[in-house]
Design brief:
Blueprint lengths: L2 E4 L2 E4 L6 H7 L23 E8 L5 E4 L4 E2 L10 E3 L3 H15 L16 H8 L16 E3 L4 E4 L8 H8 L6 E4 L6 E4 L12 H5 L5 E3 L12 E6 L8 E7 L2 E7 L12 H5 L14 E4 L2 E4 L2 H19 L4 E5 L5 H14 L4 E4 L9 E2 L5 E2 L7 H12 L5 E2 L1 H9 L7 E5 L10 H7 L3 E6 L4 H4 L3 E4 L8 E4 L5 E4 L12 H11 L10 H7 L4 E2 L2 E2 L3 H9 L6
Parallel strand pairs: 1-6, 17-18, 17-22, 18-21, 22-23, 23-24
Antiparallel strand pairs: 1-2, 3-4, 3-5, 3-6, 7-8, 8-11, 9-10, 12-13, 13-14, 15-16, 15-24, 19-20, 25-26, 27-28
Helix pairs in contact: 8-9, 8-13, 10-11, 14-15
Length: 550
């Protein structure tokens, strides 16, 4: 395998790559600002310059030092090349670049949202001078509102042009450009064209300094207080890899995680800001039951007994096939499996159905390859596959339109049902379902109040995906696990725990706590897209390693 040497360390590589890319693959740090693996290479920041010696084929392949510093982000590697990033000449360049960048940069780290994860801040300690030699007044650039989600602090900008290249190459919308010359040069939007594309929040992620900031996160939390939990997109069918940043039980922001086979380095604004329903004031917090024509609050024990009494009554009066469970595609596969098991424990012929799958518009693929999917639920395929495991085959599970028709059929035996929701917006609600349910006995598990919840005989407050662990199957059929980020809202319970509680209450199993690893072991015969659900032991190890892809 070909290799190069960087600061005395041998680094192997494959294919055609640049020095900086090989260094990153081998864990060698070379400072850089303008380079990003998802964007074109412009070599404009110049801090990655290094001394390079490479074999000269015209001189017997003897190592010869290139007489000038070379940009490691733009210099292709050659077998046997030797790179010096800590030589006196390279260090002098790093210090000079840092000094130039900091000449007009404001000293506002204490009030900057980027503090704590700022490359300029980090590199000033590692590669900069101990003190500034600049004594003149700094040039002050304006703060600008450039779009619905992004603020531009122009005086912090180091002109790396990452954001400009992103809007040209990835989103294809080209709202941002470089205007002016010299020390008056700055990033700005074109007149009348705000930064308002569906991927706009990504420019905040790729900005190496605090020039582009997220309005939603602005001044809300110091980054060193945040805990990061790897997760999966829980509002669309994309299966994008995300990171949930939270503290003291509150989510503060969602960022993309690098996923070469999926979303790469990006997420849509829909995913980035779609978690707000998690902390909505109207979240359901207490079990409720129908009494004298209205909903009244009750404890969980009473709610479970009321629910089972109604379900058992339907089976007793109507016989087998009188129960149904509709599992929302917002729930995890493990929860769908447990809910199916709970209903089939009461009625061996109970109907198993997948809830409504919201579709908004059409799939949209951007020039950079990122796709926003029209399907707005994370686990329609996983729910179906889990229910098929319970029912014994594909024919045993009804899609939502077929389920509605079965309820509307005058010959329908369905007298009672368990319905689940968890949708972040009214897009998941179905007027057809509200009408089709009629006066049947209904136990509803949901997170937000809606028309269906108001008709429930028993209403049980559920949990959002950030409050539990499980797995989703995305639009491409890929099974991916996610981890619990914050605790379940006080008074609510995960749908998996509710299913286990119902099983225990009816005497079908011993009381137990919902544990994803244990459920996955019970689902050991379930294969999804050629990937077996892991054992409890494997899940425990992966959880410890924060490994979320099954």
């Amino acid at each position: 395998m070909p290799s190069i040497t960087i600061d005395g360390r041998q680094c192997n590589y494959e294919g055609k790559k640049m020095i900086l890319q090989v260094a990153q693959e081998n864990g060698v740090e070379i400072p850089h600002y303008c380079y990003h693996p998802g964007l074109s290479i412009v070599a404009s920041c110049r801090i990655c310059l290094a001394e390079v010696a490479q074999p000269n084929p015209r001189n017997g392949n003897k190592l010869e030092l290139i007489p000038k510093l070379m940009p490691t982000c733009q210099t292709p590697v050659a077998d046997g090349m030797v790179v010096y990033t800590r030589s006196p000449k390279a260090i002098a360049n790093q210090k000079a670049v840092m000094e130039y960048l900091l000449i007009n940069h404001p000293l506002d780290c204490p009030v900057c949202d980027q503090a704590g994860e700022c490359h300029l801040q980090d590199y000033s300690y590692k590669y900069g001078r101990a003190e500034s030699r600049f004594v003149d007044d700094k040039i002050k650039q304006p703060k600008k509102d450039i779009g619905p989600h992004v603020l531009l602090y122009a005086d912090r900008c180091i002109m790396c042009s990452r954001c400009v290249r992103f809007t040209k190459e990835v989103s294809g919308t080209a709202e941002l450009g470089v205007f002016g010359r010299g020390n008056r040069e700055q990033i700005d939007v074109f007149p009348g064209r705000p930064l308002n594309n569906e991927l706009s929040g990504n420019v905040v992620d790729i900005c190496p300094v605090g020039a582009l900031l997220d309005k939603d996160f602005l001044f809300t939390q110091r980054v060193w207080f945040l805990k990061a939990t790897p997760s999966i997109d829980g509002v669309t069918a994309s299966g994008d890899h995300i990171r949930i940043d939270h503290n003291d039980g509150l989510v503060y922001r969602i960022k993309p995680r690098t996923n070469a086979d999926g979303n790469k380095w990006w997420i849509s604004d829909e995913i980035r800001y779609g978690w707000k329903f998690v902390h909505a004031q109207e979240r359901l917090r207490v079990p409720q039951r129908q009494q004298l024509g209205g909903m009244v609050e009750c404890d969980w024990k009473t709610a479970y007994r009321e629910a089972l009494a109604g379900l058992r009554k339907a089976v007793k009066e109507k016989g087998p096939g009188s129960l149904a469970v509709m599992v929302s595609p917002m729930l995890a596969s493990e929860e769908a499996y447990l809910l199916g098991k709970a209903v089939r424990a009461l009625d061996e012929q109970a109907i198993l159905a997948v809830g409504p799958v919201p579709v908004v518009g059409e799939d949209k693929t951007f020039p950079g390859g990122y796709t926003i999917y029209a399907e707005k639920s994370p686990n329609a395929r996983g729910v179906r596959q889990a229910l098929e495991l319970v029912g014994g085959g594909a024919e045993s599970v009804l899609d939502f339109p077929v389920f509605i028709k079965s309820l509307e059929d005058k010959q329908s035996k369905t007298a009672a049902m368990i319905l689940t929701g968890g949708y972040p917006t009214p897009a998941g609600e179905s007027k057809e379902l509200v009408k089709a349910v009629g006066k049947r006995f209904m136990v509803t598990l949901d997170v937000l109040p809606n028309a269906l919840a108001s008709k429930a005989n028993v209403l049980l407050p559920g949990a959002t995906w950030v409050e539990k662990s499980g797995s989703f199957v995305n639009v491409k059929g890929k099974t991916q696990g996610f981890m619990q980020a914050i605790g379940v809202l006080e008074g609510a319970r995960t749908e998996g725990q509710i299913a286990l509680d119902l099983l225990a209450e009816m005497g079908a199993s011993e009381p137990e706590r919902y544990d994803v690893a244990t459920v996955r072991e019970r689902m050991g015969g379930m294969w999804v897209s050629g990937v077996a659900m892991p054992s409890a032991a494997e899940s425990a190890v992966r959880a410890e390693m924060s490994y979320v892809e099954l």
